[in-house]
């Protein structure tokens, strides 16, 4: 390549004074005068075919090297899935990923997210060992475990935000009964209430799973605890929610055996 480049330069005639870049033209956005812009100007002859061929071979070699590096990086990262295939959150991930018994995969699919949301009806604070038990088709590593724990953290955050929101609304309205029947006990969370509809839509969007009665009872208890704390002014303490968290943490129920199988349970 060096010999080809030197040989090509040897054919260039010496520059003359008129060939030097004009400073006025440069300031106007045209660094080369109009009479010098043509590629046929003797001071700027076209590259020889031999030199062009050498450059093409060099470009091809560099492109091949970059392609190999990208393939190697993709293999080391497991396809770039990270915690969820195609990204985080509910959107932008591969759909319809159901694996047979004995199969395992790195990363998490929308099916796993749906299954985790249904598990929240029973366990608000699952341990890492519990997660491994009920996701047998997942090859666990630090990233996957962290992602699952983060999911349940987000589920809890949504749950408590709704509890506080409706408790404050009830305290403002002075009518804490949330059901349609005014004779119902205060802050009863029936399946006909707006709060239940919001929770069911978030954790059971397709509505193909029967929400267990125990979850409704726990949600009602949490709602009353938030309401009582707000009514009594305990919410002025920055740590006022911790006692509610500790109470709900102890109320996890055993997850049904149907969750031990790959795929999303329906019931």
Description:
Helices cover 48% and strands 0% of the residues. It is an all-alpha fold. Helix 6 (142-173) runs antiparallel to helix 7 and helix 6 packs across helix 8. The protein starts with a helix and ends in an 18-residue tail after the last helix.
Structural class: mainly alpha
H/E element string? HHHHHHHHH
Biggest sheet: strands, sense, closure? none
**How would you describe the shape?**
globular
Strand content: under 5%
Overall pLDDT level: 73
Distance between the termini: 71 Å
Cα gyration radius (Å)? 33 Å
Instruction: Outline the low-pLDDT stretches.
Output: 16-59, 68-104
Number of strands: 0
DSSP helix fraction: 40-55%
Number of helices: 9
Summarize the structure.
Residues 76-94 have a biased composition (Gly residues). Keywords: DNA-binding, Homeobox, Nucleus, Transcription, Transcription regulation. By secondary structure, the chain is mainly alpha-helical.
Indicate the topology.
Layout: H1 2-10, H2 23-27, H3 49-76, H4 110-119, H5 128-134, H6 142-173, H7 194-203, H8 213-231, H9 242-249
Name a few traits of the molecule.
single chain; 267 residues; 9 helices; 0% strand; DNA-binding; nucleus; Prospero_homeodomain; homeobox; transcription
